[in-house]
Amino acid sequence: MLTGKIVALKKVRFDNLEPESVKFMAREIIILRRLDHPNVVKLEGLVTSRMSLSLYLVFDYMVHDLAGLAASPEIKFTEPQVRSSLFE
């Protein structure tokens, strides 16, 4: 379905994964589907590709991540913002 919405994709290859890795990925997907928090990027869906033996996790697109913002000398965080980030 084409919506014109920009999303972020996380690609997971399944051609040579160990059973423990598959369990870990399944757990991650279950948690991400249930998670609903304003400070966590939402998992919008899953797409599989048999041709590339891959699974794509579809997320809302964010222009910046916290690490990128923290590394930027132009961005100054307030003390409450820093406390909130450290608490989470």
UniProtKB/TrEMBL annotation:
Q: Does the keyword Phosphoprotein apply?
A: no
Gene3D superfamilies in UniProt: Phosphorylase Kinase, domain 1
Q: Name one GO cellular component term.
A: nucleus
Q: Name one GO biological process term.
A: positive regulation of transcription elongation by RNA polymerase II
PROSITE patterns per the UniProt record, alphabetical? PROTEIN_KINASE_DOM
Please state every residue range assigned to the domain named Protein kinase: 1-88
Keywords assigned:
ATP-binding, Nucleotide-binding
Q: Which SUPFAM superfamilies match?
A: Protein kinase-like (PK-like)
Query: Is the Nucleotide-binding keyword given for this protein?
Result: yes
The GO terms this record gives for MF are: ATP binding; RNA polymerase II CTD heptapeptide repeat kinase activity
What name is this protein filed under?
Protein kinase domain-containing protein
Organism lineage reads as: Eukaryota, Viridiplantae, Streptophyta, Embryophyta, Tracheophyta
